[in-house]
């Protein structure tokens, strides 16, 4: 099973969308194995978004990320990285299809409410950045036999 980081950014937290986002991943059949609300430091935000450091919006993104609550989640499931990205929609909500999280719940790219790892390699780094190993709970879902062949 793959693991990925899915995070509700502070704009999603402020808008009361944590439950909606969790519901969509649970209904899809993925398993939540780590969850915590944090107020990231700017240094943590800079480290998290290090791959965007040369972009003109990097400083603002890091400042915004560290300004409020952030719900970090580790989800597990087959093909979770790709499917999670598909569920989120395009980074720019204007390009996202209805039925995706951003397509249904967002308007502007700077307030796109959710982050998801973009590759397995990135997912491993991001999960390790936001969670200590003991914060991830290994458990067997009784619904697994009804989700996977």
Automatic annotation (TrEMBL):
It catalyses: a 2'-deoxyribonucleoside 5'-diphosphate + ATP = a 2'-deoxyribonucleoside 5'-triphosphate + ADP. PROSITE patterns: NDPK (PS00469), NDPK_LIKE (PS51374). Its cofactor is Mg(2+). Residues 1-138 form the Nucleoside diphosphate kinase-like domain. One of its GO terms (biological process) is CTP biosynthetic process. SMART domains: NDK. The active site is at residue 115. It comes from the Eukaryota. InterPro entries: NDK-like_dom (IPR034907), NDK-like_dom_sf (IPR036850), Nucleoside_diP_kinase (IPR001564), Nucleoside_diP_kinase_AS (IPR023005). SUPFAM superfamilies: Nucleoside diphosphate kinase, NDK. It is an enzyme of class 2 (transferase). Belongs to the NDK family. PANTHER family: NUCLEOSIDE DIPHOSPHATE KINASE (PTHR11349). This is Nucleoside diphosphate kinase. It comes from Scyliorhinus torazame.
